[in-house]
């Protein structure tokens, strides 16, 4: 027997427009989208979304959920719960776990964990190293999101710093190659200078001086040069400087781009002024930089040079973060608050609702060739988010769902709240409550 849910009277945000209408979900799929849908059966669950907006669920192309091996910080189960509470219905997780996802065997083990425990849809990046080209070539491009290379700031042995290996990888795979770009030599030199001056107690506000604009630009421009030379499909993660945005184009449609870019919530929200009050809570790699950089990132996002918004969700415990500069790890939790932070930017007139959907749902689906997700369309999976844009709430310890128990947004009041999240047609989150529905499925790719 089919299971049906009808969302009535919604303001539907999809493909560049907003229209009032209804959405009929049957089992896992969107069966019908129309201005008015009536159903005969009494078994249909009806949700009246009067006055509220329905969005396609966000597809977050960069998260670190820490499993296996670092599960004191987070697990796929805990962080996928936080993700659906935050309107993220699909995620792509990174390979720098312990052990690292640099063999097909370890990749399969991760998929097995997610199949049992994920509340959201999932895929993983396969990790490249200086010596695993053989394993990279075994990966089926239809079954994973892509390849991740650390060209700076990696954990373990994942720094790919051999130019010959790098060129071989770029030349050998058709997968999307996603890169973290910061030049290690530049960073090491800057760090040594300030360590000599301050020891381990370097002031946190020097983080963007150590992990500088120069370090970012040098690395991303080199990666782009190599992609142009080899014809590789390159995606540059978490841009943090206005200068880097000059390396990208808005002259061609996303589906035809060979070189694309992402920006993360924290680089759109915080600036170097915030280190005074937030300290290590906003210590990320690449670093949060100047207000001018933030403005430049917004400009490039809105004019199409930056294609995707993501989180780079990377939780650490508060005890780990509360160390001196050299010991405090970089990264912070974001999946639960990313969508409402974007809605806050909408309230401030920085971005339209249609643009949020384009950058956080449609474009990740296009960029990674995700099948039947990222849109509100008949025949697509029903990954849907209902939001009330005028229902303020404040982030506090009681409502934070991350395993690490803190957020850089603590104390912040958001105007909008997510009221419902559907994952594959199942209501998985309802008004501050994650329901016990592990409806996440493995993402598939049309390649």
Automatic annotation (TrEMBL):
Pfam families linked: Amidohydro_1
Organism: Winogradskyella jejuensis
Entries under InterPro entries matching the protein: Amidohydro-rel, DHOase/Allantoinase_Hydrolase, Dihydroorotase_CS, Metal-dep_hydrolase_composite, Metal_Hydrolase
Record-level GO cellular component terms: cytoplasm
Cofactor(s) recorded in Swiss-Prot or TrEMBL: Zn(2+)
A biological process from GO: purine nucleobase catabolic process
Name by which UniProt lists this protein: Dihydroorotase
Similarity annotation: Belongs to the metallo-dependent hydrolases superfamily. DHOase family. Class I DHOase subfamily.
GO molecular function annotations of the record: allantoinase activity; metal ion binding
UniProt KW Protein biosynthesis keyword: no
């Amino acid at each position: 027997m089919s299971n049906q849910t009808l969302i009535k009277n919604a303001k539907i945000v999809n493909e560049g427009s907003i229209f009032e209408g209804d959405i009929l979900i049957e089992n896992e799929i969107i069966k019908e989208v129309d201005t008015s849908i009536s159903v005969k059966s009494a078994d249909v669950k009806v949700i009246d979304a009067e006055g509220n907006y329905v969005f396609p669920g966000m597809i977050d192309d960069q998260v670190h959920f820490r499993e296996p091996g670092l599960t004191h910080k987070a697990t796929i189960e805990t962080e996928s719960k936080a993700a659906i509470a935050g309107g993220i219905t699909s995620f792509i997780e990174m390979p720098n776990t312990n052990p690292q996802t640099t063999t097909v065997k370890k990749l399969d083990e991760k998929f097995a964990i997610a199949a049992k425990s994920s509340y959201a849809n999932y895929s993983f990046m396969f990790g490249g190293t200086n010596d695993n080209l053989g394993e990279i070539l075994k990966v089926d491009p239809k079954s994973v999101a892509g390849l991740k290379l650390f060209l700076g700031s990696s954990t373990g042995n994942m720094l790919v710093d051999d130019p010959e290996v790098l060129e071989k990888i770029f030349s050998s795979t058709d997968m999307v190659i996603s890169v973290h770009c910061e030049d290690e030599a530049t960073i090491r030199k800057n760090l040594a200078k300030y360590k000599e001056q301050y020891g381990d107690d370097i002031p946190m506000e020097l983080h963007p001086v150590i992990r500088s604009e120069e370090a970012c630009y040098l690395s991303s421009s080199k990666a782009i040069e190599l992609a142009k030379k080899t014809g590789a499909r390159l995606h540059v993660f978490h841009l943090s400087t206005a200068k880097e945005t000059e390396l990208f184009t808005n002259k061609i449609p996303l589906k035809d781009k060979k070189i694309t870019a992402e920006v993360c919530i924290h680089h759109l929200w915080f600036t170097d002024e915030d280190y005074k009050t937030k300290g290590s809570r906003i210590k990320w790699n690449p670093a949060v930089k100047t207000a001018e950089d933030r403005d430049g990132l917004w400009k490039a996002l809105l004019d199409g040079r930056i294609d995707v918004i993501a989180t780079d969700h990377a939780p650490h415990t508060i005890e780990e973060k509360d160390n001196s500069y050299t010991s405090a790890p970089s990264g912070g939790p974001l999946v639960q608050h990313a969508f409402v932070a974007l809605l806050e930017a909408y309230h401030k007139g920085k971005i339209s609702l249609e643009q949020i959907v384009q950058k956080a749902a449609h474009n990740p689906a296009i960029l990674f060739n995700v099948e039947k997700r990222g849109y509100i369309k008949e025949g697509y999976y029903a990954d849907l988010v209902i939001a009330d844009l005028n229902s303020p709430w404040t982030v506090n310890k009681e409502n934070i769902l991350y395993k690490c128990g803190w957020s850089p947004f603590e104390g912040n009041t958001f105007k909008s709240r997510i009221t419902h999240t559907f994952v594959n047609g199942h209501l998985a989150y309802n008004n501050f409550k994650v329901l016990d529905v592990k409806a996440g499925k493995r993402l598939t790719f049309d390649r």
